[in-house]
TrEMBL record:
The lineage of its organism: Eukaryota, Metazoa, Chordata, Craniata, Vertebrata. It catalyses: L-aspartate + 2-oxoglutarate = oxaloacetate + L-glutamate. Its EC number is 2.6.1.1. It comes from the Eukaryota. In eukaryotes there are cytoplasmic, mitochondrial and chloroplastic isozymes. Homodimer. Its cofactor is pyridoxal 5'-phosphate. This is Aspartate aminotransferase. Residues 29-405 form the Aminotransferase class I/classII large domain. Belongs to the class-I pyridoxal-phosphate-dependent aminotransferase family. It is an enzyme of class 2 (transferase). Keywords: Aminotransferase, Pyridoxal phosphate, Transferase. Signal peptide: none annotated.
Amino acid sequence: PSSFAEVPHAQPIAVFQLTADFRVDPHPSKVNLGVGAFRTEDGLPWVLPVVAKTEAQLARELEESTLDHEYLPVIGHPEFTRLATQLSLGEASPGLQSGRAAGVQVIGGTGALRIGAEFLRRWWNPELGGKCPVYFSEPTWGNHLSTFRDAGFTDLRKYRYWDEACRRLALTELLEDLESAPEKSVVLLHACAHNPTGTDPTGPQWLQILDVVKRRNLFPFFDSAYQGFASGKLDEDAAAIRLFESHGLELLCAQSFSKNFGLYNERVGNLVIVARDSAALACIKSQIVLLVRAMWSNPPSHGARIVATVLGDPVLRKEWIGCVRTMAERVKLMRQQLYEKLRQLGTPGTWEHIVKQIGMFSYTGLNRAQVDFLIREKHVYLMASGRINMCALNSHNLNYVAESIHDAVT
Ligand code: PMP
C-alpha cells in the first residue's frame, strides 16, 4: 500500500467545484454565476485590448533581444512595484514622497496576503507571534482565513460586517467588535468592492473605523483586489487606503492586478508597505526578501512587464483606464437590468440592494435552500452564500436567471 494510504481526501474548493459541476451539466440554459472573473456580453473572458497590444510589443522586444528571460530581483520588477504602489497610494502619497513606502512584487493578491501574513507573524507583535489575533470581516473572501492560518496564525477572529435583515453594512457591530479587539491585533480590511457583500463603508464610516484602529493600535492590512471595479475610478477606489496613510499609520496592502487588468492567470500582485520611516522600510523589505527567497525565490516577469508598460505610458494608461470603466459600467448595467426584471416579475422581497451594491458581486440574500433549488432545478450555479458574479449575466441569460430567482423565492 501507499505510504500515504492514511491521507484523507481534502474537501474540494467550493468555487472551483461549482465550476466543475457547471461544466458537466448538459442543460442548455445553464448559467455559472459563481466564478469571480469578468465576462463580456457574450459570456466570454475579456483580454483587454491594451493588454493584447502590449503583449505583442513585448514579444517583438524578446525577438529582437532587447528583452530577455533573466531572473528578476527577488523583490520584483522595479518599475512595476514603483508604478503599482503609486497606483494604490496615489502620486501625492506622503510615504512615497518621503521614501518610507514601497512595493514588493508577489504572486497575485493571494501571494501578497500570504507574504504579508508571514511577515506579520514573525515581526508584528512578536511576543504573541502566531497567537496574535487576526480579525476578518464576517463574511469575507474564503481564502483569507486559509492564507493566514497557513502562515501560522491560530487566533482567527471575526468582526461583524453584514446586517442580514437590512442588507447593509453593520457599522455599529463592526465598530463594537474592533473596539473590543485586544490591542495590537491585526485587522484585514477590504479596500473597496467588498467580497462577497458588494458593500463598502462610506467616507465618514471609514473615518470611524480609522479612529478605532488607531486607538486600539490595530495593524491595518488592506486587501485591494478590485481597484477600479467599485466606482469605475481608480483614485476613488483607493480612498480608504490613502485615508489611513494620511493619518500616519503603518500598513500593508495586498494589491492584485488579476481583475482590473484581466490578468488572472499571470499572477500579478504587489505587496504595498507603508512604514514610519525609511530605515524601518529598508529593514521590512530586507526581511520580505528572505521570505520570498525561501518561498518562490523570484517572481515571474510577464504580467509585471505588461502592467509596468501600461502604467508607465500615458497613452496606454489612458486606454487601460477606459477598459476598467467599461468593465465597471457593464457590471452596473447588469445590476440595473436584473433589478428591473425582478421588479417586473413582482418577485417577493426587496431587491434594491442589487443596484446599491458595488464591484463584481452581489450578495443576493438568497438562502441555502433557494441556492440549492437554483442549482438543482434551474441549472443556475451560484455560491452557497448567495453571492453572484454580476457580469456573468448578459442579455441572453438575464431573463432566465431572474425568472429562476423568482421561482426560487416563491
Ligand atoms: N482578495 C479578494 C477579496 C479576492 O476576491 C481575490 C480574488 N478572488 C483575491 C484577494 C486574490 O486575487 P489573486 O487572484 O490576484 O490572487
